[in-house]
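About this split. The held-out portion is used to measure sequence recovery: a designer receives only the structure tokens and must propose an amino acid at every position. Recovery is the fraction of positions where the proposal matches the reference. Here is one held-out target exactly as it appears in the evaluation file.
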């Protein structure tokens, strides 16, 4: 009987010891609203390999007329036939050069003006000039420079000036004709800005 009591006493002591190891005797309280508000939400990190895309302003080309309107006759064959002043902004930071092409939408084989390898620090072209150091291709009139829009009498043609932000210079030793330069600029273009217009005669 004495042995049985000893065994029971040992079992009770062991149970007490086990309980005392799992708690310190204090009662947990529910968190207050202030304590809950002080907990900062976790930051979500994009999965490894996912690119973070930054939104930037589009490449903008400005001419003496608003895009989508009629050309000022000053820049046509009925006026001074001067090349227009142009300005642009918001080019991609990795731009290595700019290029310009003026084409006739109604006569795709006719090229009015093509310039490439414009220095990336240049953001304007003055009226009736070409940027220093840039390559000017022969237009469809077989002249290096600007061929003023001059559609047939009684017609209206649509035109477009395209500004190219280029990731590399165009090899003008290998590609010197206006169509080939346009093709090469399209091959290394980062972004374009456009100005579309019409001219009637």
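Reference sequence for scoring:
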């Amino acid at each position: 009987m004495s042995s049985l009591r000893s065994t029971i006493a040992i079992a009770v002591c062991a149970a007490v010891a086990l309980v005392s190891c799992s708690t310190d005797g204090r009662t947990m309280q529910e968190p207050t609203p202030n304590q809950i508000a002080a907990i900062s939400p976790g930051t979500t990190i994009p999965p490894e390999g996912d690119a973070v895309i930054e939104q930037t302003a589009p490449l903008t080309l400005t001419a003496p007329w608003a895009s989508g309107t009629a050309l000022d006759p000053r820049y046509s064959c009925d006026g001074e036939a001067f090349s227009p002043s142009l300005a642009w902004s918001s080019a991609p930071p990795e731009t290595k050069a700019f290029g310009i092409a003026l084409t006739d939408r109604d006569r795709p084989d006719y090229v009015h003006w093509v310039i490439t390898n414009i220095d990336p620090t240049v953001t304007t072209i003055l009226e009736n000039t070409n940027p220093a150091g840039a390559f000017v291709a022969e237009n469809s009139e077989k002249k290096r420079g600007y061929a003023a829009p001059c559609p047939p009498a009684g017609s209206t043609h649509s035109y477009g000036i395209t500004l190219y932000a280029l990731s590399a210079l165009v090899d003008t030793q290998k590609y010197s004709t206006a169509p080939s330069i346009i093709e090469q600029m399209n091959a290394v273009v980062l972004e374009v800005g456009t100005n579309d217009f019409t001219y009637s005669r």
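Annotator remark: The chain has one domain: 60-200.
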